[in-house]
């Protein structure tokens, strides 16, 4: 069986294990209401994870997603507060535009200014967070978190009659689009090529800088999209909105099978990872453990998964070499 | 089979910082032939290939591709002209499938989406045309090295009138995999593909090549047709001496000193097997063999940098463990081939580099470094080895290759050294400084240090060794313990020709 399929089965098993543990210890866990709740919790992380999946497959990293989401939300809050006559779809488009511009800025710093992804997006994280503070709505100089009263906008936090939230539907759509993009288009193949062996991709005539630019742009787009649902749910744009969100996103992508070395993983895997992280959070709260445990466990999960992937890679490589070894033994006999 | 000339390079000149590397080399490859290119290390083979592939600009000369004069200024120019190199390290995308790799950059699309049906058909047609079958959907990293090479070959066959350059393609293959590759090469030749085959291995040339160009010191020595092939003659052409005169013969001898380092049955699976030898105090034991024969790996394993799968190493009767730190304490030192990457810390000063492996001697129980002792150690090393310039604070990266190597040697000499393992002692070092390095090694041996030298430079190997082992395909193939030997003897052994049974090969 192929390495990828085995990795997929492993992440599904992890998810199933988690569901089994929580559903056996809590009768409430699999109640429809709770299921829709953790699906909603997975969705904002999951939408961001779609974009970050592309970035990590190119062997990059995007640390700015939480801050960029906050910036997009703050810009929307400004529109809704100061210009209540602007139609809601235009406000949403503004958010997505800000997201894309932020993503392209990341791509520009990485591909044109040649900064390492890690430093570049750590710096833009600061810039985006700072801009969020700059645009925060103030009264006599002090930041006031204005509650959004626009009903049409708040409707984004709603659900369809069955109980499924709109944000979850957006998440599912993004997963389908992202997976098709990755597996069925040239851009997708080139994304893998760029991350897996950049030199060779360059020599095959692939504009790898363009591919990285695209991945960051897509990640920004996802931030803009996610911020709409996040803002509608929280009902107010705070300067701390989305703090640490990039951490959840990276954890989800890593659990889903993307490798930091690039060239591995896909959007469906990251979706499983996002579900895993939200169920873990949901379960931890059910045990009445504080959010501090939640953050610690996330950190531990990232380390375990990265370690696991390293061991797993080595196992596959040694299995491959053992076939060569047999051949060498055969030769020894022949001599 | 057509006799169309695919590539002709004429009068190619190239020099690097004043040193002439190619002095008017000619090369001609026809379609449907396997053309071997041979020569010792430094003969100019790889420079020639890099010029053909557009990696280096040539100083002088002309290249024709299929009768048309070609300007090749980059790898992509070369690719467009149908030239492809299959390197020892493969350049595939490991996580993509066979099909995606073969058609990378040439995908078929329909309505913006990849048309995998058409692409699979194209790949299958290509495989059928050249009789090379693989599962197009398999991910490349799951293939064996030989299968990956097949993918690279298929990738280079997507152009018209392809010319494939293979640089030591069997170096990382097992015997059965090599045979499969030869089979593929023969099939490609029958289909009219031109192949330039670079190798050190005479038996491969005998098996495969239709013609053979021999280079020596950047000049053409001869173009040999298959019918005129004679391994002994070709070795002489490569070395450049017709008859081994007594001046070229070097005496080998078993030293009187006691056995110090004893290696028994050392094995690292897939790399080398059952390597056993003794090294005596006061001798310089040379290890010869072709690149990829496992020499470097044996050194690294003895040093503890790689793990052995089996075998035992003892030093003066004491068993040696498998950790670098432990072995350094016991008196081992390693001078690696990749000096810049592994030998020294480039931006650090001479003083810090010499002290680097010796902080156990330079610091007190609390780990505080005695900087006076550090300076003295550095000054001693600089004066003993005549490092130039003799400025302790100079970053090592700014020194010449020879002086860099002196610093690398110096850091081991400052300790109570018992075994020094040297991999390519003078790679990239000016001729004038080489002798100084040899004398340093000889001085160490005279003091009772066991020196083991791996070298691809035959002249050097004979100059510096008191005894020579020749490795071949991960095993010790021959030992030269006594009597007089020549470069030819070593090269013949490395190529698998046992001179003691010369008649077998006539």
Describe the protein's architecture and organization:
The complex is a heterodimer of chains A (335) and B (506). With 335 residues, chain A is mainly alpha-helical. Chain A contains 13 helices and 2 strands. In chain A, α8 crosses α10. The two termini of chain A are 35 Å apart. The C terminus of chain A is likely disordered. In chain B, α14 crosses α15 and α15 packs parallel to α16. With 506 residues, chain B is of the alpha/beta class. In chain B, 33% of the residues lie in helices and 26% in strands. Chain B contains 18 helices and 24 strands. The C terminus of chain B is likely disordered. Chain B is globular, with a radius of gyration of 25 Å. A 6-stranded mixed β-sheet of chain B has the order 6-9-10-3-11-12, with helices on both faces. Chain B has a 6-stranded mixed β-sheet with strand order 19-20-21-16-22-23, with helices on both faces. At the A-B interface, α8, α9 and α13 of A face α2, β8 and α6 of B.
Tally of helical runs of chain B: 18
The structure class of chain B reads alpha/beta
Could you tell me the strand content of chain A as a percent range? under 5%
Largest interface comes to:
A-B, 35 and 33 residues
Give helix % range of chain A.
Answer: over 70%
Oligomer: heterodimer
Could you name the ranges of chain B where pLDDT drops below 50 across 5 or more consecutive residues? 501-506
Strand numbers in spatial order across the main sheet of chain B: 6-9-10-3-11-12
What is the overall shape of chain B? globular
Structural class of chain A: mainly alpha
SSE pattern of chain A: HHHHHEEHHHHHHHH
C-alpha geometry of chain A: globular
In round numbers, the mean pLDDT of chain B is 86
Q: What is the straight-line distance between the termini of chain B?
A: 30 Å
Query: Radius of gyration of chain B in whole Å, from Cα?
Result: 25 Å
């Amino acid at each position: 069986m192929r390495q990828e399929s085995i990795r997929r089965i492993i992440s599904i098993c992890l998810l199933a294990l988690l569901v089994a543990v929580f559903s056996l210890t809590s009768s409430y866990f699999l109640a429809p209401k709770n299921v829709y709740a953790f699906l909603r919790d997975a969705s904002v992380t999951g939408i961001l994870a779609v974009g970050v999946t592309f970035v990590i497959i190119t062997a990059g990293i995007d640390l700015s997603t939480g801050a960029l989401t906050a910036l997009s939300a703050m810009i929307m809050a400004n529109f809704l507060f100061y210009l209540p006559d602007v139609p809601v779809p235009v406000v949403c488009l503004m958010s997505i535009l800000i997201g894309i511009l932020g993503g392209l800025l990341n791509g520009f710093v990485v591909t044109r200014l040649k900064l390492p992804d890690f430093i570049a997006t750590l710096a833009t994280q600061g810039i985006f967070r700072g801009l969020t503070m700059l645009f925060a709505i103030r009264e006599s100089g002090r930041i006031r978190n204005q509650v959004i009263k626009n009903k049409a906008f708040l409707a984004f936090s709603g659900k369809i009659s069955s109980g499924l939230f709109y944000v979850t539907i957006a998440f599912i759509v993004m997963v389908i689009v992202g997976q098709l993009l990755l597996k069925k288009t040239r851009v997708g193949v080139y994304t893998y090529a760029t991350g897996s062996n950049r030199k060779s991709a360059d020599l095959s005539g692939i504009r790898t800088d363009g591919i990285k630019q695209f991945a960051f742009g897509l990640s920004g787009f996802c931030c803009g999209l996610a911020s709409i649902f996040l803002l509608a749910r929280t009902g107010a744009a705070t300067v701390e909105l989305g703090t640490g969100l990039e951490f959840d996103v990276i954890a989800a992508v890593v659990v889903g099978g993307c490798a930091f070395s690039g060239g591995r993983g896909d959007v469906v895997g990251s979706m499983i990872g996002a579900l895993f992280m939200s169920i873990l959070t949901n379960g931890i709260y059910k045990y009445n453990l504080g959010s501090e445990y939640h953050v610690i466990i996330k950190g531990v999960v990232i380390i375990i998964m990265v370690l696991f992937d390293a061991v797993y890679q080595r196992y596959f490589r040694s299995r491959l070499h053992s076939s060569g070894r047999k051949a060498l033994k055969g030769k020894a006999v022949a001599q | 089979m057509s006799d169309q000339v695919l590539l002709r390079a004429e009068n190619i000149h190239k020099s690097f910082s004043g040193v002439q590397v190619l002095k008017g080399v000619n090369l001609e490859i026809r379609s449907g032939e396997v053309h071997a290119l041979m020569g010792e290390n430094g003969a100019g083979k790889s420079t020639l290939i890099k010029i053909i592939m557009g990696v280096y600009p040539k100083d002088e000369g002309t290249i024709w591709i299929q009768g048309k004069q070609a300007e090749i200024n980059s790898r992509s120019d070369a690719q467009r002209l149908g030239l492809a190199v299959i390197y020892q390290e493969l350049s595939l995308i490991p996580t993509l499938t066979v099909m995606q790799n073969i058609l990378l950059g040439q995908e078929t699309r329909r309505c913006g989406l990849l048309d995998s049906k058409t692409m699979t058909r194209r790949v299958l047609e290509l495989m059928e045309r050249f009789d090379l079958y693989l599962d197009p959907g398999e991910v490349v990293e799951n293939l064996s090295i030989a299968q990956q090479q097949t993918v690279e070959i298929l990738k280079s066959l997507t152009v018209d009138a392809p010319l494939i350059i293979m640089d030591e393609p069997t170096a990382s293959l097992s015997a059965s995999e090599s045979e499969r590759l030869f089979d593929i090469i023969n099939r490609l030749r029958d289909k009219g593909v031109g192949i330039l085959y670079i190798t050190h291995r005479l038996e491969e040339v005998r098996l495969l090549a239709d013609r053979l160009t021999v280079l020596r010191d950047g000049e053409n020595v001869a173009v040999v047709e298959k019918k005129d092939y004679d391994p002994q003659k070709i070795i002489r052409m490569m070395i450049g001496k017709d008859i081994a005169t007594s001046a070229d013969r070097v005496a080998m001898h078993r030293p009187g000193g006691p056995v110090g380092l004893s290696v028994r049955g050392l094995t690292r699976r897939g790399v080398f097997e059952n390597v056993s030898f003794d090294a005596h105090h006061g001798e310089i034991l040379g290890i010869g063999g072709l690149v990829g024969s496992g020499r470097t790996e044996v050194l690294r394993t003895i040093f503890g940098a790689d793990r052995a799968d089996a075998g035992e190493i003892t030093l003066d009767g004491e068993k040696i463990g498998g950790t670098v730190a432990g072995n350094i304490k016991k008196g081992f030192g390693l001078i690696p081939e990749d000096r810049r990457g592994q030998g020294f810390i480039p931006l650090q000063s001479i003083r810090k580099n010499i002290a680097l492996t010796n902080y156990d001697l330079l610091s007190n129980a609390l780990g505080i470094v005695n900087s006076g002792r550090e300076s003295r150690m550095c000054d001693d090393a600089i004066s003993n080895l005549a490092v130039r310039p003799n400025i302790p604070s100079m970053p090592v990266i700014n020194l010449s290759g020879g002086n860099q190597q002196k610093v690398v040697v110096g850091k081991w000499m400052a300790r109570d050294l018992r075994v020094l393992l040297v991999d390519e002692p003078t790679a990239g070092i000016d001729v004038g400084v080489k002798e100084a390095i040899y004398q340093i090694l000889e001085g160490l041996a005279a003091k009772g240090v066991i020196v083991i030298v791996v070298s691809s430079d035959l002249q050097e190997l004979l100059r510096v060794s008191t005894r020579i082992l020749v490795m071949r395909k991960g095993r010790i193939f021959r030992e030269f313990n006594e009597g007089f030997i020549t470069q030819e003897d070593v090269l013949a052994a490395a190529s698998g020709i046992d001179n003691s049974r010369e008649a077998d090969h006539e």
